[in-house]
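Lab notebook, bench 4. Still working through the backlog of constructs that have no structural model yet. Next entry is a single chain of 390 residues. Request: give me the structure tokens for it.
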Amino acid sequence: MNFKKLALAAFVALVGTQVFAQDYNVQFSGTTEQVKVKNLNTNEEKTLEATGVLVLKDLENGIAENAAKSLNIYPNPTSGSTTVSFNNPEPGSVNMQISSIDGRMVASFKQEIPQGEVLFNVNGLAKGSYVFGVYNNKQLAGSGKLSVIGETLGSPEISLLSTAGSLKSGLALAANIEMQYKTGDKLQFTTTSGTSTTVLEEVFTASKTLAFEFASIISTDKSSQEPGLSITLTGEGFGTDANAVEVKFGSTLASVSSANNTQVVCQVPTLAAGAVDITLSVDGRTAIYTGFSVAEPAPDVYTVEFTGTTEQITVKNINTSVEKTLMSSDVLMLNLTSKSANSNVGMDYNAGDKIQFTSTSETSTTVIEEVFTSSKSINFSFASIISTDL
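Model written out:
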């Protein structure tokens, strides 16, 4: 066995017998926006592009690898091709070698490469475990292990995708970011699309792809509604459990009476009249709607006063045929909410009812009909015949 084979065998033995920290690769789907990541146990925060890869470096077990000598290999495990990236410490001859776990070299690549981030693509590896070594000017610059869990076609091949400041035509370099991770740490992932935000929390035991789903409020059945009455929110991503849906008008919680994936019915809480944002939250998804206003509460009664007459006034609800006689000095109370509250000066009133008012002054009679939407004063004026020419 020559010197190169002995060196390779020694490297594989060293790498193969080390207890490697378990690194997890996290990728994203369902969003094109940036993803904010927070380790809820350590409060460390990172931000990366949706096309990027979060590399969780688990340093809790085994020998911690120097960050300058760590290879980011993703996906890992893989059932096809995989991408390898590392930080080349200085310009020079870079040699990447892939060996089977029993020490056989299965692929290699050598080229002059500038300092900085380097990205390789590897494919054609048969099912099994492999050891990766990257050398710069014959010094070890990075190492790692890869598991291939599916059969692949073709021969093992390493190709250079990019070096610092350059990228092969037609390829997009997805930024990858490292974060330290210990077994059991909970990570929080937040991304926003328009006025919708989704927050996911995850404890990792393997590499995975996180799929973001968004809730969105497209419309409400009423642009304005008074407190205590219901409105319907229409959109998507609401789920089907009304108990899991939280709706707030500003910072005030609303009561949710029903929910399905596209509609939520809730009651407007007691708030001052004016514009207010509606926020819907369900299973880590949050949507905000900005086109709603709280209406002034409807009055309990309309008051009706009379001018222009000193005589009695006959009042008749044309819709219900209820009839009353009032003095001109009386104030008629049209009861909107407290029904069966008829009195000498009170009358039940439903929206849209037409009220007829009749008053007579000597030989002149005036009749006025009115549909009420607010309190008002009824002014009687009379026609009179004073004389004839004969």
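Notes after review: The chain has one helix and 33 strands. Confidence is low (pLDDT under 50) at residues 16-21, 61-68, 167-174. Flag for follow-up if needed.
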